[in-house]
Amino acid sequence: MKVLIVGSGGREHAIAWKVAQSPRAEEIYCAPGNAGIEEYAQCVDIGAMEFEKLADFAQEKGIDLTIIGMDDPLVGGIVDVFEDRGLRVFGPRKNAAILEGSKAFSKDLMKKYGIPTAAYENFDDPQKALAYLETARFPIVLKADGLALGKGVLICNTLQEAQEGVRSIMMDKKFGSAGNTMVIEEFMTGREVSVLSYVDGKTIKTMTSAQDHKRAQDGDQGLNTGGMGTFSPSPFYTKEVDEFCKSHIYQATVDAMAKEGREFKGIIFFGLMLTKDGPRVLEYNARFGDPEAQVVLPRMKNDILEVMEACVDGTLDQVDLQFEDNAAVCVVLASDGYPVSYEKGYVIRGLENFKDKDGYYVFHAGTKKTDKGIVTNGGRVLGVTAKGKDLKEARANAYEAVKLVEFDNKYYRHDIGKAIDEA
Ligand code: AMP
Ligand code: GLY
Questions:
Q1: Distance (Å, rounded) from C-alpha 101 to C-alpha 179?
Q2: CA distances, 84 to each of 54, 150, 293, 370, 374 (Å)
Q3: How far does residue 153's CA lie from ligand 1's centre (Å)?
Q4: Which atom of ligand 1 lies closest to the CA of 185?
Q5: Residues 263-322: pLDDT tens digits?
Q6: Which tens digits make up the pLDDT trace of 319-331?
Q7: Scanning 88, 142, 209, 264, which has its CA 20 to 30 A from the CA of 357?
Q8: Strand, coil or helix: what is 99?
Q9: Residue 6 phi, psi dihedral angles, 5° rounding
Q10: Are 279 and 272 spatial neighbours (Cβ–Cβ below 8 Å)?
Q11: Measured between alpha carbons, how far is 30 from 7 in angstroms, rounded to an integer?
Q12: pTM for this predicted structure
């Protein structure tokens, strides 16, 4: 098979690595890709939002399957463009990617179909939102409706903070048109778990659980980031939690989308909060998490192309999805100063240490090939993943592996997976 992967981050590197394991993969391309992905795929200089150019490329090369890694092209309708040209593509169409693309849509869907989530109201008029806040309880959560690079959620402790939040999102348009509509939601507490799943329109198969660390600094301090590290599985995702989610959340979401005429094929990422009243959906994403993919995919036993093709063909019920009975931890190596301001262009040393080192992986996020060698080229630079027989061993291995690679202004959290000590 000839495969094209669309995206350029650590998640797409993990997908490319996994695709390369498949005996069915003959040629792998990635657009636009990055310096690490080049090891497995031929990188093509076409942007992820250039749908027509990507489809032209897929047609010219005779690509058998295109895998969309990122949210923006999915929400923008890349799958529809490919399907209209008769090209096989893994991911939801635009009318289904709205599950991630509009938080107001996903909240209304959950309410209509009785899927457990926080109480909320949607607003498209800032004056009404401000009036609503006058009688609200705090803390309260404000969410820009659309995609906002993971920054569109504000947790507000006071009325004043919330009023400022409404003004900045809905009136000053801090996140552009993503803030035309806003969700105001009850604040919940509990542990967060990510559960990713493959979906073929009818059948859903969940993957092993994972947990992200979104804040920049140790102890969950500092600003929100794209994700500073992950571990998998989550020890808090117990059998009881799984059973509850299977009965009330997973299949219910797939069925709800089908009933709405929005058949979902691809990945559904369930962001869950385990509250004292049971699991609640925080958010849906329509793609792999980054850096969740970097711990989940190394533990997946199946041939990813077989599973993805089953999603496209509607035969996922025939797939026996299996994960290794071990654990993985990913520590993100960032540029000091991320997510605010940071320097780039530093040479990365030691990448070769990961070659043929079983159970250890270095996934590139923001890197670039130059005549000096591979240099840092982003806030999140690399994701270092290690497996172990259990979470403790995986964490120790990951922090050993972090020392194998060096660059100036290297920054990382020291407490990825620390929560497992409380399990
Ligand atoms: P989201 O993009 O919806 O996942 O929100 C980003 C983060 O905000 C989540 O991972 C949670 O940490 C937090 N969050 C979102 N919604 C709520 C809520 N209703 N109560 C408490 N925290 C929340
Ligand atoms: N790691 C969270 C996300 O990919 O949205």
A1: 12
A2: 13, 30, 29, 38, 38
A3: 7
A4: 19
A5: 999 999 999 999 999 999 999 999 999 999 999 999 999 999 999 999 999 999 999 999
A6: 999 999 999 999 9
A7: 209
A8: helix
A9: -105, 120
A10: yes
A11: 7
A12: 0.97
